[in-house]
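Q: Two folds, back to back.
A: First:
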Amino acid sequence: MQLGIGADGRPIQGRRVAITGIGAVTCCGVGVDALWEGLLHPAVIGGPVPDFDPEEWFGAKEVRQLDRFAQFSIAAADLALRTPVRSTPPRPSRG
């Protein structure tokens, strides 16, 4: 798959990827529903992550040892594994 043309004039090749899940830990909240609600009705841009409890994913010792951003990334990856994306688009209803 060609992504574009490089500075040297040669095509830039990319790899195909498959999105298999969605996980979001954002300033809108934790989870896809919170992200979507925050995008539809923005109240804050940037800032702390509300409702994020690292102990939902880690033990007390791991919470102390892991950087906050590492906690966010691991939590988002776990949410992505638990929130699958449809592999085929829904068919339009006939009627």
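A: Second:
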Amino acid sequence: MSDPTGPTAPTSATPPPVYAPPPPPIPYGQQGIPQPIGPAPIAAVILQQLRGPALVGIILGLATVIVPLVWHYVFYVLPIAGFLAGISAVRRGQLIGGIIAIVLNAMGAILTLIGLTGG
């Protein structure tokens, strides 16, 4: 079936556009480049350190330091419990709160020893 109007002049056909080859497949386990994660706010990091056993140790330490100085009453076992809570906090990764608790309870233990010896 030819064209009834007759032969036509040959037209110059443009070549098809050249496309870039597709990228190679991503290897298994690598899902591309991960998005960067910004730094956490410093207040959130510090507040995370002052939870759980660290907070308990700090409260016990403050009680063993403040109460003897203000009301002249000495706690005998409280510094030991606060010291153990501070050690527990350090073992759980709450280093800042645990060290604060240990130092406060050591100060409270010294005040307790001073109160026991009558000094």
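Q: And?
A: The chain is about 55% helix and 0% strand.
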